Structures are given as C-alpha cells and as structure tokens.
UniProtKB/TrEMBL annotation:
Active site, renumbered: 223
Protein name, per record: Pectinesterase
Any Pfam family: Pectinesterase
Organism: Cucumis melo (Muskmelon)
Pathway as given in its UniProt record: Glycan metabolism; pectin degradation; 2-dehydro-3-deoxy-D-gluconate from pectin: step 1/5
EC number(s) stated in the UniProt entry for this protein: 3.1.1.11
Gene Ontology MF terms: pectinesterase activity
Domain Pectinesterase catalytic: 83-355
C-alpha cells in the first residue's frame, strides 16, 4: 500500500476519567418528553448565540476560529509535546505504537504525533484490523462490538488529520456478531479532519461525546455510523457498500439526556444497495441531514423504526434542503420532519457541538 505520501498528524490527549463527569448532564427528569427535543435545541442555540455574540465568533457558518477555549484545553495547548515518528530512525520513534506507549497516563498535555512519510510495515498511518464482535478475546469471551474496534479512542480532545482507519472484516448477510468497528470514539471534544473510515458492518462507532468530522470518507454496509454521540458531520462522503437493504445510521439517543444526535451537513450519500438514512436504535434516536446530496439508493420512506411503532413519537429524524434523487420527501414516513429554517438553525453549524470552546484549526499545530 502506498497511501503514505503525506505528512500525517495525530494529536492525542489523555485526560482520564474526565469524560463521564462532563457528559452526564443534569437534565431534569420532566424533560423526558422527547417531542420537546427540537425546542430544547432551539433554546440552546439562542442561548449560545447570545454568548457567541460576546466572543465575536459567528454562528451558522463554518468554524473560523476565534472562540474562547475551555480551560483544560487552553492548558493542554500551552504545554504541547511533539513526537516525530519516522521509520528511518531520524525521528523519536520508529512506530506509532511505541510513540503512543511513551505518553504517560494520565496526561494533560497536547501530544502531537507527526508521522513522517514512508511505508510502515507493522504500524502504518493506515491503521488496519479485522476483528469482529464474534472473535474471541484474551479473556476467552467474544469481543463484542465495542472491543472489535481497530482503533479505540477514550481520550478527550483527540484530533486526527489525514488518517485512514480500517476494519477489513466482511459482513455476511444474515450473520450474527459480524460487527467490525474501524474506529470507536468515546472521548468528548474530538475532531477528525480529512480522515477515512473503511469497514463493512458498524464501521464508525460514534460512541459518546461531542465530535466533529470534517471532509471525511465513511464506508460501510449496515449501521455504519452508529452510537450516541452528539456529532456534526460536515462535507463528508458517505459510501454504502450494502448488497441488499440496510440502514446507514443507527443513532441511539440516551434516555435522560437531550444531548445526543447526529447532524450531517453538505455531505454526499451514495454507493450500492438500498438504504434507510437511519433506523431507530432505541426510542430516542435523532438524526438530521441538511444540504446533503442523496443518491437514488435512499429508500423513499427514508427512515426505519426498527420494528417498534411507539418510537414514532419519540425518535427525531429531520431533513433540510437536501438534494438529489434520494432526497424527495414525498414517500417519507409520516413521522419524519421537513425542517423549517428556524428549526434547522441549531443543526447546521459547528455550534451544534459547542465547537467554539474546543475546536482548533487543524493548522494550529
Ligand atoms: C447578536 O448581535 C447582533 C448584532 O450585533 C444583534 O442584532 C443580535 O440581536 C444579537 N443576538 C443576541 C442573541 O443577542
Ligand atoms: C484476520 O487477520 C489475522 C491476522 O492477520 C488472520 O490470521 C485472520 O485469518 C484474519 N481473519 C479474517 C476473517 O480475515
Ligand atoms: C484536507 O484536504 C483538502 C483537500 O481535499 C485540503 O485542501 C486541506 O488542506 C486538507 N486539510 C488538512 C487539515 O490537511
Ligand atoms: C419542506 O420544507 C421546505 C422549506 O424548508 C419547503 O419549501 C418544501 O416545500 C417542504 N417540502 C415538503 C414535501 O413538504
């Protein structure tokens, strides 16, 4: 493989055990009426818009920098450490694995791994694997979906640029435990720029936290973007390789939290098979597509309740100004939403993931 003719940057920051504290929000119990999700988002948006006025950033547009960083990130950025990985021995380490092992835990500094061009035999900028949920782990039990990931990120403030994450395990139709995750992101405030994710079933486990995906390529067949993160996907290319019928996303909203949901903007949905844009993993699944080109592989119904009609009242699936043969709203399930301008506002910018306080320009490193 010769995908390595560019400089790769991988930024890692381990801040152990901070995630849960920041993620479990004190949403009042009476907020459990999920039909209020939209108004919750709108209120939140307006509140943030007020804040952002003061910090000079602009909402409703792509991130341009200039926000006020949160305190942990500010500290981490002041104490940056740079590690060069170079196979020819001119850097600090010869493999990515050695470089990551050298980072103490817990760590509160920004660690930048600069992976120099070259072909890495054991440890390439393309990080690949082929585990599935059914493969037996070191403890003698099946790995399960969570542990099938080729790369698992538990750190907060993770950034990857120009990386390729892959799981080569192929999904057989009708098989059980065929899930093979290429990347699992469980830390919050993570960004992926120009990355690609190759897999089949369950490629990208957008597990939990605030995430930003920019100009990424994501390929898979069944539920290939799934989890309960609150994530903004911008200018992403979503490629279905399904052979028959499958759902592209399986978002799982968390009971007791309004936070999670996937928002796709300015993206492309294409590939093979016939797909639902999403199916409801649990009762509170939430996905919005805006300004996205949808090829004719998208089924007219658009969305799937995964066999539970009661979810029609609690899931939230919205579309806004999408285009292409798959974006015709006429055949959509009645419980999907065609968003108004006002309703779409909270979802169509990096403010959706509170990016002002943590999203750095990829060039700042
Ligand atoms: C933000 O500032 C603009 C112009 O300065 C103003 O028109 C708008 O009302 C402000 N928004 C909020 C939410 O304060
Ligand atoms: C996965 O990779 C291992 C090691 O390279 C190999 O032994 C195994 O046969 C592969 N399994 C599949 C399903 O490709
Ligand atoms: C991402 O790729 C685009 C070309 O598609 C390039 O213009 C841009 O500089 C890249 N961004 C980074 C952070 O490398
Ligand atoms: C969807 O909403 C847009 C306004 O955002 C409107 O122009 C369009 O006609 C609506 N489409 C349907 C099928 O209701």
């Amino acid at each position: 493989m010769n995908h390595f003719k560019f400089i790769l940057l991988l930024l890692l920051l381990f801040v152990c055990n901070l995630f849960l504290q920041s993620y479990s929000l004190n949403i009042e119990e009476e907020r459990e009426d999920y039909k209020n999700w939209l108004s919750w988002n709108l209120q939140n948006y307006k509140k943030k818009a007020g804040l952002v006025n003061r910090s000079t950033a602009k909402l409703g547009r792509s991130y341009k920098g200039g926000g006020v960083l949160d305190d942990k990130l500010k500290k981490a950025e002041m104490n940056k450490v740079r590690i060069i990985v170079s196979q020819d021995g001119t850097g600090d380490f010869k493999t990515v694995g050695e470089a990551i092992s050298s980072i103490p835990k817990p760590n509160s500094k920004r660690v930048i791994l600069v992976i120099n061009p070259g072909v890495y035999s054991d440890d390439q900028p393309t990080i690949t694997g082929n585990d599935t949920a059914s493969v037996t782990g070191a403890d003698g039990k099946p790995l399960g979906t969570l542990k099938s990931a080729t790369v698992a990120v538990d750190a907060n403030y993770f950034v990857a640029i120009n990386m390729k994450f892959e799981n080569r395990a192929m999904h057989e139709i009708g098989s059980v435990r065929g899930q093979g995750v290429a990347l699992r992101i469980s830390g919050t405030k993570a960004a992926f720029h120009n990355c690609s994710f190759y897999g089949d079933q369950d490629t990208l486990y957008d597990h939990k936290g605030l995430h930003y995906f920019n100009n990424c390529y994501i390929q898979g067949s069944v539920d290939f973007i799934f989890g309960y993160g609150r994530s903004f996907y911008e200018k992403c290319y979503l490629k279905s390789i399904t052979k028959k019928v499958a759902s592209m996303t399986a978002q799982k909203g968390l009971k007791g939290s309004m936070e999670s949901g996937f928002s796709f903007k300015d993206s492309v949905v294409t590939g093979s098979g016939q797909i639902y844009l999403g199916r409801a993993w649990g009762d509170y699944s939430r996905v919005v597509f805006s300004y996205t080109f949808m090829d004719n592989i998208v089924l007219p119904q658009g969305w799937n309740d995964w066999g539970s009609q009661k979810r029609h009242l609690t899931v939230y699936y919205g579309e806004y100004k999408c285009s292409g043969p798959g974006a015709d709203l006429k055949g959509r399930v009645q419980w999907a939403h065609n968003l108004t301008d006002e309703e779409a506002q909270p979802f169509i910018g990096t403010h959706y993931v509170d990016a002002d306080s943590w999203l750095l320009s990829p060039y700042s490193s």
